[in-house]
Amino acid sequence: MLLSPIAAVGRSVLHILAMIGQVVIFAVQTVVHFVRPPFYLREFFQSLLSIGFFSLPVVGLTAFFTGGALALQIYSGGARFNAEAVVPQIVAIGMIRELGPVLVGLMIAARVTSSIAAEIATMKVTEQIDALVTLSTHPMKYLTAPRVMAATLVVPLLVGIGDIIGIYGGFLVGTSRLGFNTAAYLQNTADFIQATDIISSLTKGAVFGFIAALMGCYYGMNSGRGAQGVGRATKLSVVAAAVMILAANYVLTEVFFSA
């Protein structure tokens, strides 16, 4: 009886390690399929459209209101230390380095990861994936590789757009509500942004897009049978993608800005 709790912890740890190993193997196989023919360009371009273009409204609205709220918060907090003038600089660096990539990644996880997991899980339940195998079509090459590659390429563009819209939201609030001069606000914003900030933001976008699509495909491919299996796969994919995006954000921040 004394060893039962320890055994339970051990089983949990082994289960987590086994799952991590499965995800890593799945990711490696997906990357290998990027460069091995045949290539399903129609699936790739459809994924570009659904992941990129149709995500623009939610990404734009999220970034705009976040930038505006960030400007208000920085102005309010800076007033305690007579540092209200730093609003343009902090909004720019906050959106580009952290809030832009993370919020876009989480929105993609909520919208795209869940959609991919539900779609592939439904295909598995209705035996469409088995039908692909009988037609000599590799399911990972047809379903996983185009989606993951499309997300990896298009999410950095969404992050860049989100950064711009978020900074614009802060600009509107700063000039219309907080009394900043338009030319001075834009000049302070441009002077404070560095190339490293932009590179880190776009790199985070590529990694977050890869994670979001990969988790949707992984849990969709490994879903259980029936409606309950589809629902569980969708839920787990979003949770896993969100947690991995936040963890990857910390690692990438350490890589780019630890010095």
Characterization of this structure:
With 259 residues, the protein is mostly helical. The protein has one domain (48-257). The protein has helices at residues 4-35, 41-51, 56-78, 87-125, 128-134, 139-176, 182-192, 195-221, 226-257. Helix 3 (56-78) packs antiparallel against helix 4 (87-125), helix 4 crosses helix 7 and helix 8 (195-221) runs antiparallel to helix 9. The chain starts with a helix and ends with a helix. The model has no long low-confidence stretch (mean pLDDT 90).
Total beta-strand segments = 0
Distance between the termini: 49 Å
Order of helices and strands: HHHHHHHHH
Q: Could you give a short account of the major beta sheet?
A: none
Relative helix content: over 70%
Discrete helix count: 9
Supply Rg. 21 Å
> What percent strand?
under 5%
Secondary-structure-derived class: mainly alpha
Mean pLDDT: 90
How many separate domains make up the residues?
1
Low-pLDDT runs of 5+ residues are: none
Coarse shape: globular
List the helices and strands and how they pair.
Layout (H helix, E strand, L loop, with lengths): L3 H32 L5 H11 L4 H23 L8 H39 L2 H7 L4 H38 L5 H11 L2 H27 L4 H32 L2
Helix pairs in contact: 1-6, 2-6, 3-4, 3-6, 4-6, 4-7, 4-8, 4-9, 6-8, 8-9
At a glance:
This protein has 259 residues and is mostly helical. It has helices at residues 4-35, 41-51, 56-78, 87-125, 128-134, 139-176, 182-192, 195-221, 226-257.
